[in-house]
């Protein structure tokens, strides 16, 4: 069973996953390994090559999703480099999702910022066009069957405060409030639209108990 965790930048996804991992070390938790990025750019490149090759040779039936992703680039008001980076990240998301779904079909797997997170990746530094969340999820409908979604929803003021403190590699200080507002809007839409495409939506906030979150997920898994 795949659970994807998503939410706005600054909502606390990484912190929550660390708490879950420390409390329940037996769970399979897949993250985008910030430690790889910190250790070496070359390791980050090799990591992408690994998942890129997996996509080419093990996911030939999923090329239609790549074409769909390519079409979404028109919604990004950004540089060509950042657009290509979005494609790179999305290919990696698909590959990771398929790999863990195949290898751990009977296990509970929590994936950080998986396919469900693509709408957030389309947010750019400047004003964004309307991001087609419905179109994105409908395009992935066959791929994300039997998948549930854990949405971390926190107040806009908290997101802005955290982004002002830590920054974000796709925005500058002048655009943080606009970026946070776009993130917040997408979270609200996913809470509604996600119900059509994911088996179950778990809504949590920063005050939610880690044990209660995992308990609810495990109980749900037992009844499906």
Neighbour order of strands in the largest sheet: 2-3-1-4-5
Please state roughly what percent of the residues sit in beta strands, choosing from under 5%, 5-15%, 15-25%, 25-35%, 35-45% or over 45%: 5-15%
What is the terminal separation in angstroms? 10 Å
Question: What is the name of the CATH class?
Answer: Alpha Beta
Structural class: alpha/beta
Radius of gyration: 17 Å
As a percent range, the share of helical residues equals: 55-70%
Provide the CATH architecture: 3-Layer(aba) Sandwich
Number of helices: 10
How can the largest sheet be summarized?
5 strands, parallel
If you consult CATH, what is the topology? Answer: Rossmann fold
**What is the CATH homologous superfamily assignment?**
P-loop containing nucleotide triphosphate hydrolases
Low-pLDDT segments: 34-39
Q: How many extended strands?
A: 5
Count of discrete structural domains: 1
Please state the overall shape, judged from the principal axes of the Cα atoms. Answer: globular
Could you characterize what this model shows?
With 224 residues, the chain is an alpha/beta fold. It has one domain: Rossmann fold (3-Layer(aba) Sandwich). It is 56% helix and 10% strand. The protein is built from ten helices and five strands; from the N terminus they run βαβααααβααβααβα. Strands 2-3-1-4-5 form a five-stranded parallel beta sheet, sandwiched between helices. It is globular and about 45 Å long.
């Amino acid at each position: 069973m795949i659970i994807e965790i998503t939410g706005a930048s600054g909502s606390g996804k990484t912190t929550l996953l660390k708490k879950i991992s420390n409390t329940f070390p037996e769970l399979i938790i897949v993250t985008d390994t910030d430690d790889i990025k910190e250790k070496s750019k070359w390791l980050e490149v090799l990591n992408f090559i690994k998942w890129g090759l997996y996509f080419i040779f093990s996911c030939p039936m999923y090329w239609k999703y790549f074409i769909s992703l390519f079409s979404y680039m028109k919604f990004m008001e950004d540089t060509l480099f950042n657009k290509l980076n979005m494609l790179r990240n999305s290919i990696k998301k698909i590959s990771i999702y398929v790999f863990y779904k195949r290898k751990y079909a009977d296990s509970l797997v929590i994936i950080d910022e998986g396919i469900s997170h693509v709408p957030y990746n389309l947010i750019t530094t400047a004003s964004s066009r309307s991001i087609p969340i419905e179109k994105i999820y409908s395009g992935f409908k066959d791929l994300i069957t039997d998948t549930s979604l854990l949405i971390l929803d926190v107040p806009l003021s908290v997101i802005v405060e955290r982004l002002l403190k830590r920054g974000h590699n796709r925005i500058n200080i002048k655009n943080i409030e606009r970026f946070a507002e776009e993130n917040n809007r997408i979270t609200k839409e996913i809470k509604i639209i996600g119900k059509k495409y994911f088996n179950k939506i778990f809504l949590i906030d920063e005050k939610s108990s880690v044990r209660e979150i995992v308990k609810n997920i495990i109980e749900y898994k037992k009844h499906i």
